[in-house]
Amino acid sequence: MRTRFFSLAVAALRPRFARASLAVLGTAGAALLVLVLLGARRSLETGVDAVAGAPGIDFWLAPNGTDNIVRASGSLDEDDAGRAAAIAGVERADPLTRGFVTVATLPPSPPHRLTLLALGVRGPDGLGSPRLLAAGRRPGGPDEVAVDRAAAHRLGIGPGARVLVADREAVVVGLTEGTNLLATQLLYFDLSSEEGLLPVSYVAVRLAPDADRDAAVRGLERAVPRSAVLPRDAFVAASRREVSSGFAPLLVLVSSMGLVVAAVLVALLLQGLVEDRRGDVAVLRAMGAPAGTLALVVALHAVLLAAGGALAGSVLAPLLAALLDLLAPTVELAPRAADAAGVLLLFSLAGAAGSFGPLARLFSVEPLEAFRP
Which of 34, 94, 106, 175 could form a disulfide with 127 if both were Cys (CB 3.0 to 4.6 A apart)? Predict the structure, then answer.
């Protein structure tokens, strides 16, 4: 009997296609907005990992008071890399410099100007060199640079283009990938010909495979007392926190608004559904349909509508990421299945929450209304 009433209730309370489609589309838009923000944050973390988590680095030596790659205070001595390399168990120690520079295009490229975060590394195979290349090669000589492909898109240049980097002419020999920090992009140059001329921001350290890590850390702390010895994982975590510190509150705000929008849309649809089908509900109540069965059907409709919108948004997110990558690579998205699953769960809960009001309205329908003329 309950199964029969359930089937009748599903048929009687099925939302009209047009209204249901609008609710799903609105919920899909809210879900897509949340997924875009999550994807942007993921790509931001990827850019940080490409620098702070570069392969082959076990420790970072940073000036005291600095624990991340985004903001640095002070500098190290130019001989600190040599002191670190002399420690037992240290296989390699390379200096790195960082700073913001202005990059301007030169004819025949269209005139553009952009501020980038420049990293100086020791040669094309130096510690901290870019991992992924979209085109060309890593800089390996004076007056050679590699720029993030998003920056190249903004500047309208490619490999072989000549640019002014801090009023110094250089040639772009490569385009890096995964080095976009949204607010700025990265530029790499070969530090080998500049050592001694630029202040050292960090020293990247790689240990020998059989090195005693604790002993090496103690040796580094004694040899370079003005620096903080930071394991790579800790340096990456601090860099992630720093770069996303202003992004996280926005993500929480917009995600919360998206959930509220989804719940309101579903609630409005179900409220109209209950009002439109008030006579059908009264008939079912007069036939003896349990109130719990009717409530279950309404709640299931709410969850299905919200979940359908979340699924639609999850399908659209990677399509949007691919389209942006093709047409506007300055905005990089890195959608993940885990994010889509989380959004699906949260929006389903938002749909269930949105059904509370219509459920209360449903219980106010009296069976006698079925017999009114």
Answer: 94
